[in-house]
Give the backbone structure.
Amino acid sequence: MKLGLSQSNCPLVLGIQGIARLPLPFIAPGTYPVPMAQSHTRFVRPAQLVALLLSFLAASALIGVVSAGVLVPAVGTGAITAKAGMEIFDEIPTDIQVVSPATESTMLDTNGQVIARFYDKQRIVIPSDKIAPVMKKAIVAIEDRRFFEHHGVDPTGIARAMVNNLGDDGGKQGASTITQQYVRNALAEKGYMEGDADQVEAATEQTTERKLREIKYALAFEKQMDKDQILSGYLNIAPFGPITYGVEAASRLYFSKSANELTIGEAALLAGLVQSPVQYNPLQHPEAAQERRNTVLSVMADQGVITEAEEAEAKAVNVSDMLHPTQIREGCSGAGDENAYFCSYAVRQFLADSAFGKTSIERERLLKTGGLTIRTTLDPKKQHAAYESLTKTIPSNDASGLDDALVSLVPQTGEVVAMAQNTVYGVGEDETMSNYSADGSFQVGSTFKVFVLAEWYKEGRSGYETIDGRTNFPNGSFKCDGEPVHTESWNVVDLAGKDGAFNVIGATGLSVNHSFVNMASKLNFCNIFQVAADMGIDDGNGEPILAVPGNILGSSSASPLNMARAFATFVNDGKMCQPYSIAKVTDRQENVLKEGSANCKQVIDSQVAQKVATTLTKSASQYYTATRLSGGRQFAAKSGTTDYSANTWLTGSTAELTTAAWVGHGNASTTPVQNVRINGRYYSQIFGETFVGQNIWAPYMSTALEGTPNQPMPNANIGTPQAAPRQTQAPTPSAAPAPQQNPQGQQQPGDNNDDDDGDE
């Protein structure tokens, strides 16, 4: 049997000659030898030989149709198959829309370092010149040795496969060229990218229609692209593992190097994988992978691609010794505990943005297939400082069971530059994916008093006004628009030593509860809560916090991010900027899909904001003895401590950076924090300024601002100083009396919601 290629008006026509003169040497009765490549002989039975001849006739006719557009002479089953093939073939379009394959997206920090990768298929598309030449040679040698000779379909390969597959040994040999494989993968990928499962199935189904379509498109590919384009396209789309696609991702996975650095042995290993990425996975089946690699090396040597010496040298290395795997976890799980929670926040903002798709499903598909580059606002220096200050104070899974979180943003823009917590990111035991900074809802304690200050100055009052020492507030003490607010009589409790009169600055610095309740009684009570709402603090449902006296001292809850946003407003002249984490998103062609920018709105009068910032700066400098920034840098801040130290805070700002830090139980926010050992040290109770401020907030801010100019804080006119009233320093925190709580644990008008901060 002789395969002849005739050159007429058609590019490729397969004919059959000499069938009647088929040479059959004498052999055992009942069997006939069929010539195989490289002098191997496989014996088939007469029935198999008949089937072989008929199938070959059909294949010859089919290839004639494909290559020349005419049907070569054929008989019997071959004619029938060819006629059917012609009809199917004519219905197939002549072109194929090749989509860019699904490519992983990367999230970067401000230094351009990768935070996380997102993918359904781990793939990194690279140009041809970034693929090692030996890799191209290896894949051609083992998958399609006549790749550079045929025009997309290899008749010799088809004949060889038919002979092989009709034998008795059960071995199956494919006949698809690299071009055909590229077509198959490209069609399946197109269906995948379009979310069309039927299209994916049609690209891989075992039918005559699929094979005809594949052949026709292969011929079209060869006319539209050169061989190197086809080869590099195939190497970028082919599977090399269960979820690893493309040679670059495979090279990084198995060898921790780029595809342009592959050695002969590494290229042979990867080339062998495409036949069965699971069976030959070197991480799971190193022995099978080694056997397959050696097969590829032998083929390469037989074809003269490498020398025998190179073959021997490569085979001498065990596959296990070749591997240097880098297994990257997809998504924010791969960002590490330090960056994972910022990552989750940025992903949430991405998925909520209609600029990236009409629906969240479309946005998620784009994220995991679009090859996007997401440049974020994350400052790696500040992020590391945040994580260090949190975990040094309360290590992950500390015996205390306490959590802490910190978020930091630029007040003039809303850029989130750091967001971290001390927990392990994940879904396992002692792990959490809850983002306490962005999504936490914790009682804010005395940090809420800043909104009383804002309304105080809004109504034209002085920061030097003396507030008397009244502690009892009967029904009718508070008025909204002149109408009394009906409450129970409230006896406000403070730490011992905080009795008497204070001016506003002293009351703020020492966080005197009765002073702020007294101030609230002199104001339009409901406006306090409206100010808080205007600054982004609400009841969690977008409505203002309920205007009840207990909320003056911080019974209401908020996230650290929302508290940071509010405090930033004071040093930004009353303009509140929405926090954002994504600076720029570009597609794989570097087209800009969206650039982040400041979204700011004037929410309180600039003079009011400056007066609050001035008051917080003066009170912190005078009364915060534990919380200090390096270089004597000024800051505006307010601490907070709720009942039984369940939640402790310090939120504050310099001119260029605002930070909120919190400590408590993330999933049980009312759990007392008393008589507890934290990081090996015993505490009877903790306070916002002396614990959070001293151990977390100040160390972070000092490091984050290191090397930056010391910008001046607002210095507004808050009134005329008066003779200072008697002010009593707060005693040590251990002297604090235990506040009263009702059996249900609910705040009562007489409760001291803020045992206060121990501001000493």
Q: What stands out?
A: The chain has three domains: 2-89, 122-322, 437-579+598-694+729-735.
